[in-house]
């Protein structure tokens, strides 16, 4: 339970924790960022790690000259793209038998079903759209592997989606993350980056299932 509480605290106060980490460990922060994004996008058992909010905060820290923007963009993009490739490979390995898995501590059946419904409705473009959707982002590459999308097609969508996700949110944070208004309401913005995409995801998945 203590680990869960600490994780929630990290997600909701990622700006504070990242600043403390940079102050204490310096350039090692890039290894930390790579690990978080790679695991969040690459392992279906870790969909709750920060994604959108983390990219925005990293951009803001780059704007405050606490980190290097080019290096951060490179590390984050490589992690996001590599994570999805690994996730796709895992899904491709297990294949259709995944549909028989039950909800468990290590597998979120509801999130998988929502991602599958979204994938069935939008096809390959889902890989790009899902980058901005918490939880669904982690399961879509896995679903693409289960559905036997060709690796070349998946890789093309993955490259576009990964680059667009990292560049758009990090650069937005770079230019706007240090404005007084944003700093004053940063906790609310982090909540919005978590909840708003999630609501749209749930609505989209519900509509897709209703039409199925």
Please describe what this structure looks like.
The mean pLDDT is 84. The protein has 212 residues and is mostly helical. It has helices spanning 2-12, 14-25, 29-42, 52-63, 69-94, 109-122, 126-129, 136-146, 151-176, 180-184, 186-211. The termini are far apart. It has one domain. It is globular. Helix content is 76%, strand content 0%. The chain contains 11 helices and no strands.
List the helices and strands and how they pair.
Blueprint: H1 2-12, H2 14-25, H3 29-42, H4 52-63, H5 69-94, H6 109-122, H7 126-129, H8 136-146, H9 151-176, H10 180-184, H11 186-211
Largest sheet: none
Number of helices: 11
The overall pLDDT, averaged over residues, is: 84
Low confidence ranges: none
Summarize this structure briefly.
This protein has about 210 residues and is mainly α.
Index terms:
mainly alpha; 212 residues; 76% helix
């Amino acid at each position: 339970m203590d680990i869960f509480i600490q994780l929630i605290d990290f997600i909701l106060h990622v700006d504070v924790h990242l600043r403390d980490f940079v102050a204490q460990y310096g350039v090692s922060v890039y290894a930390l960022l790579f690990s978080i994004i790679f695991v969040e996008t690459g392992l279906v058992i870790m969909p709750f790690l920060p994604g959108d909010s983390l990219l925005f905060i990293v951009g803001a820290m780059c704007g405050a000259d606490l980190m290097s923007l080019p290096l951060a963009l490179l590390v984050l993009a490589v992690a996001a793209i590599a994570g999805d490739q690994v996730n796709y490979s895992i899904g491709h390995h297990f294949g259709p038998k995944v549909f028989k898995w039950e909800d468990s501590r290590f597998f979120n059946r509801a999130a998988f079903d929502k991602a599958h419904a979204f994938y069935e409705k939008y096809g390959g473009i889902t890989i790009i759209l899902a980058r901005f959707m918490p939880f669904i982002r982690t399961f879509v590459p896995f679903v693409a592997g289960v559905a036997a999308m060709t690796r070349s097609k998946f890789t093309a969508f993955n490259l576009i989606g990964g680059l667009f996700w990292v560049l758009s949110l990090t650069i937005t944070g770079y230019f706007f993350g240090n404005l007084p208004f944003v700093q004053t309401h940063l906790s609310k913005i982090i909540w919005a980056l978590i909840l708003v995409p999630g609501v749209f995801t749930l609505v989209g998945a519900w509509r897709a299932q209703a039409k199925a």
